[in-house]
Design goal:
The chain is of the alpha/beta class and about 260 residues long. The protein has two domains: about 5-180, Rossmann fold (3-Layer(aba) Sandwich); about 190-255, no CATH class. The protein has nine helices and nine strands. The protein has a seven-stranded parallel β-sheet, with helices on both faces. Strands 8-9 form a two-stranded parallel ribbon. Helix 3 (about 85-95) runs parallel beside helix 4.
Length: about 260
């Protein structure tokens, strides 16, 4: 995909540096391990616990053929999330054909430098779409991002909004590839019985349900969903909106509790 000279190889060697393993990226990581010789380096494995309150397993349970290791971070006073010093050793001692790095992190800078010095293709992977938040880490990475994005060989993003963002930063449209997040949810027979219970519990009846599941934070744009639903309700009364999630910002702003 990135370099023609690697296409003929059955299993190119890939060094994939990422912060953590989330449920929506796990299917892709496991699938990639089945078709490529890839080693994953996770530098902030318990990030999911900080953001979502969910523990991330560090044992090789259900990871298939994945080869990975978890690095420790140091110097938290220098970088908001610390610096994984062990990464430098892997970047310059390991043999690989392609390097993949998570964009907007300290690791990205190390990976980009190593790829250019060793003359290897570098692919960036990111879920950012240009949100103007107050994160000092995001603001710090911004000038580096604008420099690195046009000089990368490819960028993997989850949606069209993200692609537009990186094209605006200088990426060539034909080098930005959409890789949607996956779901490992399997519908079971008992789920249909649970649906009837929930419809009764919330007095939904046979109404059409619009369901949002996620964090209740400003950048998710849930307020637009609520505004759109209020307009829809003026046109028809056979619909209902269910919001499931946590987020103190929304709870305080809107002044009522969510289920």
């Amino acid at each position: 995909m990135v370099a023609q000279k690697y296409i003929d190889r059955q299993k190119p060697r890939i060094l994939f540096v990422h912060n953590t393993l989330m449920w929506y990226t796990k299917p892709f990581f496991v699938g990639l391990s089945e078709v490529c010789d890839v080693k994953f380096i996770f530098t902030h494995m318990q990030l999911g616990k900080r953001i979502y309150g969910v523990e991330t397993l560090e044992e090789n349970e259900g990871f298939g053929e994945m080869k990975y290791k978890v690095l420790k971070r140091y110097f938290n006073k220098i970088s908001p999330s610390g610096i994984p010093l062990g990464l430098i050793k892997d970047l310059f001692q390991e043999h690989y054909d392609i390097l993949v790095a998570y964009l907007g992190s300290v690791e990205m800078l190390f990976c980009f430098l190593a790829a250019k010095l060793r003359r290897k293709p570098i692919i960036l992977q990111s879920g950012k779409w240009g949100w103007k938040g107050k994160s000092s880490e995001r603001n710090l990475a911004s000038p580096f991002t604008k420099f690195i994005v046009p000089r990368s060989d490819a960028i993997l993003v989850p949606g069209t909004k993200h692609k537009e963002y990186f094209v605006s930063l200088g990426a060539s449209p034909d080098k930005v590839f959409i890789m949607p997040y996956a779901s490992n949810i399997i519908i079971k027979e008992e789920d249909y019985k649970e649906e009837k219970k929930l419809r009764g519990r919330f007095d939904i009846g046979t109404k059409k349900v619009i369901l949002y599941v996620g964090r209740l934070i400003k950048q998710k744009g849930v307020e637009y969903l609520i505004e759109a639903f209020s307009k829809l309700r003026k046109e028809r009364d056979d619909v209902t909106l269910i919001i499931a999630g946590e987020g103190e910002i929304f709870r305080k702003k809107l002044g009522f509790a969510f289920h």
